[in-house]
Design a protein that fits this description.
The protein is α+β, with helices and mostly antiparallel strands. Helices cover about 35% and strands about 25% of the residues. A hairpin with a 4-residue loop joins strand 5 (about 85-90) and strand 6. The structure holds flavin mononucleotide. Flavin mononucleotide binds near residues 29 and 117.
Length: about 200
């Protein structure tokens, strides 16, 4: 049985100037305990995957992507989010919704796969970003393998800046066991593979 959770619409207005946010951005690895409002999770996902334009033939998003292929997908390990049961969700960009894949303390599993980086279990959420490789290699061949990592970097930076602007701490994570992380989110590591992770939680 699958459960689809429609996220509240993002409210991308107000907040500190972009220059202040850039200067304040740091990797934050310890967090406060307050659960994250669902509105904040919605805003964070919008900042990395939000659809903000339409070229007719395809959409455009707020993070750039080589050839507008958008190979990066998001999985959410929710540890402590208001109105959201703890568990693993897949983010459905077009619907701005979360699909529950399984319940439970998935953040702990993400921490284990991230070589014991406890912030993945301590934060409100851990984002696990995969690359669906044929979206890019289908057009660019071998070069597409390089593009997915560049795309992931942009997604990560947008997450850092959005979290900072919202008063949250973020740390992106590249140190993880590939096979373990792929297994955890249920991807094969060949067509779809985990490329980047981030933990986000309230500033202490
Ligand atoms: C690709 C990438 C992978 C990273 N992986 C990790 C990681 O596995 N664990 C961690 O604690 N920080 C990780 N970081 C954060 C860096 O350690 C951090 O950006 C760097 O020390 C500079 O500090 P700052 O982000 O606070 O300015 C990563 C950053 C990037 C860009």
């Amino acid at each position: 049985m699958s459960e689809l959770i429609k996220l509240p619409a993002p409210t991308p207005s107000g907040g500190p100037p972009v220059w202040t946010v850039m200067a304040a951005r740091r990797s934050v690895r310890h967090y406060g305990v307050d659960p994250m409002p669902l509105q904040v999770l919605s805003q964070l996902l919008w900042s990395t995957h939000g659809i903000t334009g339409d070229l007719g033939v395809h959409e455009l998003r707020n993070a750039p992507s080589a050839g507008a292929c958008y190979p990066i997908d998001a999985y959410v390990a929710a540890n402590s989010v208001q109105r959201l049961d703890p568990g693993l969700y897949r983010y459905l960009t077009g619907d701005h919704a979360l699909l529950l894949l399984r319940g439970g303390n998935v953040g702990k599993e993400v921490a284990r796969a991230a070589l014991g980086q406890r912030m993945c279990a301590q934060g409100s959420v851990a984002f696990v970003w995969t690359a669906v490789l044929p979206r890019t290699t289908g057009r660019y061949g071998q070069r597409g393998h390089r593009y997915v990592f560049m795309d992931a970097g942009h997604v990560g930076q947008n997450m850092y800046l959005a979290a900072t602007a919202l008063g949250y701490g973020c740390c992106t994570i590249g140190a993880f066991d590939d096979a373990e992380m792929n297994k955890l989110v249920g991807v094969d590591g060949s067509v779809e593979t985990v490329v980047y992770v981030a933990s986000v939680g309230p500033r202490e």
